[in-house]
Design brief:
By secondary structure, the chain is mainly α. Helices cover about 65% and strands about 10% of the residues. It has a two-stranded antiparallel ribbon. Helix 2 runs antiparallel to helix 3 (about 45-70). The longest helix has 23 residues, at about 1-25. It is extended and about 70 Å long.
Length: about 120
């Protein structure tokens, strides 16, 4: 009987360790999946398979961000810049604790946009 319990405990420990490693390195893994692996899938199985694979990676990233209350903002230093600056932030409150006014505005307009002026 203790063999079964030891096997279950070992499986749980290995599963938790694997989840922690995947979570820690997810950005690198997602980048590799969206570029290198997606190129191979696109060549072998076609463009639709590549798109579906990238959608799956994005879905996992969104779920991970929701669980960790992370968000990403892409900005430019100047309006004429050709590149974006990526800023990742962590919120203090989960998405379900957002003010009711903000949720109503998102429902009306479909999105919430904050625009910044360049000086």
């Amino acid at each position: 009987m203790w063999h079964v319990v030891a096997g279950i405990a070992l499986g749980a420990v290995v599963g938790i360790a694997l989840a922690v490693i995947l979570d820690k390195f997810w950005d690198s893994i997602a980048n590799w999946l969206n570029n290198t692996a997606a190129d191979v899938v696109g060549r072998m199985l076609g463009v639709n398979a590549r798109k579906n694979m990238q959608r799956a990676v994005v879905t996992v990233s969104r779920i991970r961000d929701r669980l960790r209350n992370h968000g990403v903002i892409y900005t430019k230093k100047n309006p004429m810049d050709r590149y974006f600056i990526k800023a990742t932030y962590e919120t203090e409150a989960p998405a379900y604790q957002v003010d009711e006014d903000i949720l109503n505005e998102i429902d009306k307009k479909g999105e919430l946009v904050n625009e910044f002026q360049y000086y």
